[in-house]
């Protein structure tokens, strides 16, 4: 999916203002208007904690860059644990034309040629296909965490797979696709269709988001160890953001089964690579 153009954004902003007049919960808007109010990937606090623990496997006070961070919804959560974390976003208009505040930790720039220094970790969350700048990113970090929508944006030019750029794949996990969450919320709360139809529609879902961790070989085992430690305490109330109950409600619980092709996967289950 291409990022929205400015005309689309002001249109979306108007739609958001209308939506707020009849919305059932403040926590719905991040899934219905992901670019304006949330993120294109559907995350929980455990995703943030995993990303943080990966960064901490390199240094106590690691440097971190979120490329294409948008308004920085995920980045601001990461910054609660990694205060030095920065973002890079090339679309300056999305801040200034909509009158949104741009924090100093988000730099306006193009990841293709404007990453100025080396970072302990670079996070690439949901970029659009078309530009392959993997070699540029590979010069700037030893650890890459990337998320992308399966089926949609990755591919030859999608710039998502980093093997072959000196990295090993370390671990991966699956989260629900925001499109499925969005559809289920719309069906359940904002359209008049019967429960039976909602149920049969929910059986059709199958999109999903993949999270891949890549590192230079020397960090691989340490990252796996940190991730294993981090995942021990994941299934508890403290490790949750308020909006996560929306995911539970529409059937995307932690370790919920999801069918991908012919295989059953468990949402958020970490798969480690040898
Ligand atoms: C699909 S949006 C995802 C935004 C955010 N990461 C999220 O998950 O919601 C992709 C973002 O990447 C930005 N972007 C695309 N190419 C970029 C580049 N070369 N350098 C920096 N930002 C870029 C776009 O302007 C857009 O805001």
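Q: What amino acid sequence fits the structure above?
A:
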């Amino acid at each position: 999916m291409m990022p929205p153009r400015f005309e689309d954004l002001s249109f979306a902003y108007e739609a958001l203002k209308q939506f707020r007049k009849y919305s059932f919960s403040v926590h719905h808007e991040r899934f219905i208007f992901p670019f304006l109010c949330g993120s294109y990937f559907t995350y929980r606090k455990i995703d943030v904690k995993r990303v943080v623990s990966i960064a901490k496997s390199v240094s106590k006070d690691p440097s971190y860059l979120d490329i294409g961070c948008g308004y920085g919804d995920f980045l601001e959560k990461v910054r609660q644990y990694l205060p030095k974390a920065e973002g890079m976003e090339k679309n300056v208009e999305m801040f200034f034309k909509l009158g949104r505040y741009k924090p100093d930790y988000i730099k306006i720039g193009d990841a293709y040629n404007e990453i100025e220094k080396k970072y302990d970790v670079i996070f690439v969350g949901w970029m659009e296909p078309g530009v392959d700048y993997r070699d540029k990113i590979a010069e700037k970090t030893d650890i890459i965490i990337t998320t992308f929508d399966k089926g949609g944006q990755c591919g030859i030019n999608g710039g998502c797979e980093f093997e072959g750029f000196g990295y090993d794949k370390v671990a991966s996990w699956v989260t629900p696709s925001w499109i499925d969450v969005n559809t289920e919320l719309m069906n359940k709360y904002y359209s008049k269709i019967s429960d039976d139809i909602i149920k049969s529609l929910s059986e059709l879902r199958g999109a999903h988001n993949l999270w891949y961790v890549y590192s230079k070989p020397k960090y691989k085992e340490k990252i796996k160890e940190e991730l294993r430690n981090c995942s021990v305490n994941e299934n508890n109330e403290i490790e949750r953001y308020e909006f996560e109950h929306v995911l539970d409600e529409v059937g995307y619980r932690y370790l919920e089964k999801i069918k991908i092709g012919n295989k059953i996967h468990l949402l958020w289950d970490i798969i480690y690579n040898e």
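Q: And what stands out in the fold?
A: The domain at 6-272 is CATH 3.40.50.150 (Rossmann fold).
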